[in-house]
Amino acid sequence: MRRHHHPRLTSTVLVAACVGAGTLVASGLVPAPEARAATTAQYRYRELPALGGGGWSEPGAINGAGTVVGTSNGHAYRWKGGVLTDLGDGLPGPGGESSARAVNLAGVVVGQSNVDNENPPHAVRWAGGVLTDLGTGYGVGSGSSARGINADGVVVGIHYARQSSPVRAAMWRAGKVIDLGSLGGTTTGSYGTISEANAVNDAGQVVGTALPRSGYPLRGFIWQNGVMRDLGTLGGTSEATVAEAVNSTGVVAGFSQTAGGETHGFTWTAGRLRDLGVLGPAFFYRSSFARGINDAGVVVGAARVAGAGEPYGHEVATVWRAGVLTDLNRIVPVPTGRRLRLAFDVDNTGTIVAVSCSIALCENGGGDDRTVVLRPVG
Fold first, then answer.
1. Does residue 366 contact residue 339 with C-beta atoms inside 8 Å?
2. What is the mean pLDDT of the chain?
3. Using CB atoms within 10 A of its CB, is residue 280 exposed (0-12), middle (13-18) or buried (19+)?
């Protein structure tokens, strides 16, 4: 999931009623092998086009108005009202790259973009068709990236003094770049992480991951009014804990290592971590990750499960609700030959944005990943 280095602008990767097989075949939406045991489709599957009509795309987020933003073929996009728009970048000509990570209810999009030919990417905002460089808080040679935005237009993400410098959590508010600090730790190592901010809610609560005074591994945090709080761990001591999302009531979703050495998704509420569990039989690489959460506490993300002939297993998109973690491929009519690999975000209607891939290429970065919108039935 989250990789702790400066973001690179490259391709990456990203009916609640019974539905008979005949209906699915007629519609062209035949479940993939993982889903064929399902007798009830709980979501409708809609695959969005990629920019240019081919290639790859992955979502970043969905807002409460159904607007989806993400990245396709190296450019940020917005999908609104059935229309796909290339948001462009900050360079003339075709050479620049950009990515969109978040969108608020007003439709303001944030992410990162090339802004010139000399410096690393900068955090940017797209509003009313205009791209604005949010800056870095440093000088020439510095970079930044935006990862979250709230209703007031407060933006969070990372910034760094040089391409190889450690990244630090940042907030853009009222025209200023505010460094959010760490959990007491610091490093001067190249491409290290001191802290990263991943999301912000309308109350101004920021979540992410930061270096503790004791040093690595990183720990999840929630920040508010200048105070950064350690979220704790699920018992593990050698892998990072990362807070990925926070809803309007301050419930946090992310992932952490357990005492048994597995990485599991979690939610954090008022000082308490809840393990969201994993799927399938135990094997060495079994894990789960939480990526998004809505105000009802529905959590989406992914899990790594065992697969025949796959020594490392494979990744499936997941939804967690009412205490149950479910492989979305089992409750969504996924087209034959494809798999839902990772769910990125969920809005308050329960609509999920995820990425699908060709089953034969999912673990190899085959370049045909596509953004998918999953709308609840009923």
1. no
2. 90
3. middle
CB atoms within 10 A of CB 18: 9
Distance of alpha carbon 237 from alpha carbon 41, whole angstroms: 40
Burial 238-251 (b: 16+ CB within 10 A, else e): ebbbbbbbbbeeeb
Q: Rounded to whole angstroms, how far apart are CA atoms 357 and 14?
A: 9
Q: Please tell me the pTM assigned to this model.
A: 0.90
Q: Are 297 and 321 in contact (CB under 8 A)?
A: yes
C-alpha 295/C-alpha 169 separation (Å) is 24
DSSP state of 271: T
Nearest to 183 by CA among 127, 143, 240, 135: 240
DSSP 263: E
Residue 123 CA to residue 371 CA, distance in Å, equals 23
Q: What CATH number has the domain spanning 17-376? A: 2.130.10
Q: What is the dihedral of CA 206, 109, 370, 2, to 10 degrees?
A: -30
pLDDT of residue 9: 31
Q: What is the CA radius of gyration of the chain?
A: 20
- pLDDT tens for 281-316 read 999 999 999 999 999 999 999 999 998 888 999 999
